[in-house]
């Protein structure tokens, strides 16, 4: 819970000196600041802006307090941003509240519920996660009672005045024309920055655009730099003002430290005032470099330093993480959250804490009591699950783990223990930074890279801000501590940008789906075009149009300002030079084929690379490969630069590095003697000296091996490339500009002009696209797919098939519908039907384990045939879909596990079949049950009672035991 809802010393004035609490409506003192109004009180500040819809301009000042009693009182002084936001809501306007983690945004959500109850109006609170919705339901129910919950899995008191639900449920209710939504006066969107999530962010945009025009909004977000732009979109879309209340004030200031991997000290790089300490950061980088050099000299360079994630348990040297946790406990900086971005790494690091006893006897007894009280709802078999038994000894020592691979009930137990102060060190993935306010005194980052589905990347500054914001408990700590483990893979500029960067901007991730189109087409309300035009993505695109046009004009001006003497001739010469380069590249591609070049790559062979040939100045180096590097490019000593080819006059450090064959232009007929071991610096220096001696003996260039006579290359492609190369070189030699003293300057000017022209053309195309409807081409393509597959008719009306697909939101709607209409499920048993549905749910790559049983091979083949048919239609409709990749994305890895679960197997048995984390398996089973419910709804639309019964039976059979254990928050 955010500040203001805890049973502990209240934040604000009372917590610091017992000053009398101000009334809710106490006057704020505003001053204008940088286009916004800056509100100050007791040293705390908040900025206020308001976006008015076109044609309805009003005051830009913060609204005055409401006359009469407040909907809810608080036993502490509200911060300026809280009071300003409440005043905005009481005015009947929408508001976006952007504030740091732990600042107290939940106060706003609570007040919204209180307003609804006072005014006898319905309020909806939405969150991105079912777990967060469960937690908020419990919190609101304890205070207001007239509260309901809708998450898909659970429905409690659906007619309550205050309804807590996931955003997906709200969107579904809007598409279905729910009476409940039409009655809603205020909608609270918690964690609105989820709108930029690539997969699920579109749900936020759909629900906002489709919300009743009479509804007002309270958006709660982490700090975002473009809050004003988002508010302008809301005002534009709903025709009513939207205020922005923004605060950088952090109730508990943070200090940021860097811990160089392999080192022994901490360096404060950002102080509690937010100032970046460049001198300390330089010292940290130097310490990191020294540690890397020491590791390399001792032969330890092949490992990732001494990071705990790769350190074998039981090694003599203590890992960095172990040292850091011990230091944190010694300095009483606990509780601490240690963020890692791998579930396996979280568990490995926690296991390294086996020697630590962080709880006393009383705390250990409390942990055990809470744990067994929670687990008591499980069956005897589920209480014996390996994950359940393995985690209790760790928890009793005061160490916890929190990631998506844990059983949901264990995650909730760990959250409760952490909130109660019974866990001192928690190893967690990024998901722990979202949701209820569960701060710690200290936050540690074990690394700064994360896998985002496509590859590993550095954390953005916004992600770092979100997670580091967990440090510092309001009213308990005078400051929070954040520690980042820095390793040699991170450039200083990257680290500085992360530690001292700005929050991520709120950008649209709007995209189309078939379910969206079908729901819009059948609903008789907004059309797909209207939804696209009202989206935040369209709004951002149109707002960028003036800047795009200005950029195009500026680039065109740059292009026109470049004067090239005799431009036509220079353009002709440049085209010939490009032709020569292309031919040389084609010849090099044949030359460097392993069959041609490898027999001649003996140690000591001199070769030329980098596109210039061995006779180009400074173009010599020894294959396998000796290069010279500037001192500041040596690994671990600052910014890395590309190693330069070795030459006699080269200055720097000779190094042996790998070189791709494709970088070799030509081979020399000469070889030099090399020392057997090039690792010692002296041996590399001797090799460098030998290269210099060869250069002196051949001042006009080294003799080359002839590709055809010596390397015996008879490939026609090589001869063709050589002929093109010779032709281009001959024409260049005879060209009128050949030998012109200012040729290089003219070519450079032409290149600048052409680059500016190309950039201007791109900018013009972007501006033209911004003028039109976003995703217009994709919308046409998706409509073609729906029409060709029979989901809409020639007039664009939704058919029965389309109405069935509109019911499916948790799996591929077209594929499931095709399976329903082709009768694949008709002859299946309940177990087989559940197993087949799991193939639509589980689409993760990797070894899910198990083989496909004979009973499922036919249905699985039918699934793939249907997927291939859909894929071909989509490809023909120019959707840009790879058919075989689409077909392969439906995986049967969990089919056998779901088959056995439906037959009554224990969770332990199916966990052995699936070979994945227990929590991941729980989510897959729950998602399968969700799709089964949607398939039953689709069968009802078809009028197929037997088919509906099949899916309902499947849903009932798998909905049991630990997989569907009730939330501890309910």
TrEMBL record:
One of its GO terms (cellular component) is nucleus. Its main location: nucleus. It is found in: Nucleus. Keywords: ATP-binding, Helicase, Hydrolase, Nucleotide-binding, Nucleus. GO terms for molecular function: ATP binding; hydrolase activity; RNA binding; RNA helicase activity. Residues 1-23 are annotated as: Disordered. GO terms for biological process: maturation of 5.8S rRNA; RNA catabolic process. Residues 86-242 form the Helicase ATP-binding domain. InterPro entries: Beta-barrel_MTR4, DEAD/DEAH_box_helicase_dom, Helicase_ATP-bd, Helicase_C-like, MTR4-like_stalk, P-loop_NTPase, RNA-DNA_Helicase, SKI2-like. Belongs to the DExH box helicase family. SKI2 subfamily. This is Antiviral helicase.
């Amino acid at each position: 819970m955010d500040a203001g809802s805890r049973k502990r010393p209240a934040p604000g004035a009372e917590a610091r000196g017992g000053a009398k609490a101000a009334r809710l409506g106490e006057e704020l003192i505003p001053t204008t600041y940088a286009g916004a109004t800056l509100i100050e009180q007791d040293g705390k500040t908040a900025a206020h802006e308001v976006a008015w819809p076109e044609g309805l301009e009003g005051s830009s000042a913060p609204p005055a307090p409401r006359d009469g009693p407040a909907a809810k009182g608080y036993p502490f002084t509200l911060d300026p941003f809280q009071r300003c936001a409440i005043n905005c809501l009481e005015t009947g306007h929408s508001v976006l509240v952007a504030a740091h983690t732990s600042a107290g945004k939940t106060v706003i959500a609570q007040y919204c519920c209180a307003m609804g109850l006072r005014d006898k109006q319905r309020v909806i609170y939405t969150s991105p996660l079912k777990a967060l919705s469960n937690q908020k339901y419990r919190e609101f129910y304890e205070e207001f009672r007239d509260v309901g919950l809708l998450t898909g899995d659970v429905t409690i008191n659906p007619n309550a005045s205050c309804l807590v639900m996931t955003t997906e449920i709200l969107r579904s209710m809007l598409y279905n024309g729910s009476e409940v939504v039409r009655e809603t006066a205020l909608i609270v969107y918690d964690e609105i920055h989820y709108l930029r999530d690539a997969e699920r962010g579109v749900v936020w945009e759909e629900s906002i655009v489709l919300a009743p025009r009479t509804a007002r909004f309270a958006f709660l977000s982490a700090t975002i730099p473009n809050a004003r732009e988002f508010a302008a979109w809301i005002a534009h879309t709903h025709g009513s003002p939207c205020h922005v209340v923004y605060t950088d004030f952090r109730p508990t200031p943070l200090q940021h430290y860097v811990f160089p991997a392999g080192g022994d000290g901490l360096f404060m790089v950002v102080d509690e005032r937010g100032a970046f300490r460049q001198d300390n950061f330089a010292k940290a980088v130097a310490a990191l470099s020294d540690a890397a050099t020491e590791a390399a000299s001792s032969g330890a360079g092949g490992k990732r330093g001494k990071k705990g994630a790769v350190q074998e348990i039981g090694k003599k040297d203590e890992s960095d993480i172990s040292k850091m946790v011990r230091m944190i406990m010694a300095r009483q900086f606990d509780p601490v959250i240690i963020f890692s971005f791998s579930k396996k790494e979280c568990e490995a690091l926690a296991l390294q804490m086996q020697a630590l006893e962080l709880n006393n006897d009383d705390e250990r007894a409390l942990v055990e009591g809470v744990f067994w009280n929670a687990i008591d709802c499980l069956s005897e078999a589920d209480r014996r699950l390996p994950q359940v038994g393995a985690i209790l000894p760790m928890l009793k020592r005061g160490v916890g783990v929190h990631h998506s691979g844990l059983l949901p009930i264990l995650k909730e137990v760990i959250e409760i223990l952490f909130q109660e102060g019974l866990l001192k060190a928690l190893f967690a993935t990024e998901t722990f930074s979202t949701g209820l306010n569960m701060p710690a005194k200290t936050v540690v980052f074990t690394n700064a890279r994360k896998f985002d589905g496509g590859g590993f990347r550095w954390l953005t500054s916004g992600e770092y801000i979100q997670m580091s914001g967990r440090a510092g408990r309001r009213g308990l700590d005078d400051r929070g501590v954040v520690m980042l483990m820095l390793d040699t893979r991170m450039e200083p500029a990257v680290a500085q940008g992360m530690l001292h960067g700005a929050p991520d901007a709120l950008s649209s991730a709007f995209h189309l789906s078939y379910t969206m189109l079908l729901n819009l087409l059948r609903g008789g309300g907004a059309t797909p075009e209207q939804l696209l035009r009202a989206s935040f993505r369209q709004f951002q695109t149109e707002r960028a149009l003036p800047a795009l046009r200005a950029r195009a004009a500026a680039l065109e001006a740059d292009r026109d300002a470049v004067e090239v003497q005799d431009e036509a001739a220079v353009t002709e010469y440049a085209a010939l030079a490009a032709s020569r380069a292309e031919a040389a590249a084609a010849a090099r591609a044949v030359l460097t084929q392993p069959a041609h070049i490898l027999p001649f790559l003996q140690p000591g062979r001199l070769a030329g690379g980098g596109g210039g040939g061995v006779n180009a100045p400074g173009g010599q180096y020894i294959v396998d490969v000796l290069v010279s590097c500037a001192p500041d490019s040596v690994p671990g000593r600052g910014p890395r630069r590309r190693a330069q080819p070795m030459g006699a006059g080269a200055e720097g450090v000779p190094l042996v590095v790998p070189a791709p064959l494709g970088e070799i232009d030509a081979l020399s007929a000469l070889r030099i003697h090399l020392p057997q071991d090039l690792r010692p610096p002296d041996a590399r220096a001797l090799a460098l000296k030998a290269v210099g001696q060869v250069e002196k003996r051949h001042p006009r260039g080294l003799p080359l091996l002839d590709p055809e006579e010596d390397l015996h290359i008879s490939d026609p492609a090589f001869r063709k490339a050589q002929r093109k190369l010779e032709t281009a070189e001959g024409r260049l030699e005879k060209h009128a500009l050949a030998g012109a003293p200012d040729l290089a300057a003219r070519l450079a000017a032409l290149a600048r002009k052409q680059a500016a022209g190309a950039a201007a053309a791109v900018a013009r195309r972007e501006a033209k696209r911004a003028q039109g409807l976003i995703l217009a081409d994709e919308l046409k393509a998706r409509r073609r797919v729906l029409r060709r597959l029979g989901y809409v008719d020639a007039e664009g009306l939704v058919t029965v098939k389309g109405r069935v697909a509109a019911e499916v939101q948790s799996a591929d709607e077209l594929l499931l519908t095709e399976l329903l209409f082709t009768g694949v499920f008709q002859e299946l048993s309940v177990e087989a039907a559940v197993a087949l549905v799991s193939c639509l749910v589980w689409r993760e790559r990797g070894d899910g384990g198990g083989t496909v049983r004979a009973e499922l091979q036919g249905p699985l083949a039918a699934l793939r045939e249907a997927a291939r048919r859909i894929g071909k239609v989509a490809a023909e409709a120019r959707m840009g879909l790879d058919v075989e990749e689409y077909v392969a994305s439906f995986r049967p890895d969990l089919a056998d596990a779901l088959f056995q679960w439906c037959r009554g197997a224990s969770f332990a048995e199916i966990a052995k079949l699936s070979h994945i984390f227990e929590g991941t398996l729980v989510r897959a089973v729950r998602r399968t049950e969700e799709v089964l419910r949607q398939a039953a709804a689709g069968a009802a639309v078809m009028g197929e009672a037997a088919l509906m019964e099949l899916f309902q039976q499947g849903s009932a059979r798998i909905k049991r035991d630990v997989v569907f254990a009730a939330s501890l928050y309910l």
